[in-house]
Design a protein that fits this description.
The chain is an all-alpha fold. It is about 90% helix and about 0% strand. It has 2 helices and no strands. Helix 1 packs antiparallel against helix 2. The longest helix has 30 residues. It is elongated and about 45 Å long.
Length: about 60
């Protein structure tokens, strides 16, 4: 059950990353959009890293 939950979260984060990339490409020429999109992508990356740590923790459990 925990693995399914993590996988759903991982899929959601992947969708966020794809949307952030799409927004970055559409926001060309709007400095505020580009700046905030970079921040968004950094936050998404932190989520990806955290999920990696969660995955490692759950894999170690019997």
């Amino acid at each position: 059950m925990e693995t399914e939950r993590i996988e759903k979260i991982r899929q959601g984060v992947e969708t966020l990353a794809q949307n952030a990339e799409r927004l970055a490409s559409q926001g060309d020429g709007f400095p505020a959009i580009m700046q905030n999109t970079q921040r968004l992508k950094a936050c998404i990356r932190m989520m990806e890293i955290a999920l990696g740590q969660v995955s490692m923790t759950t894999e170690k459990k019997p």
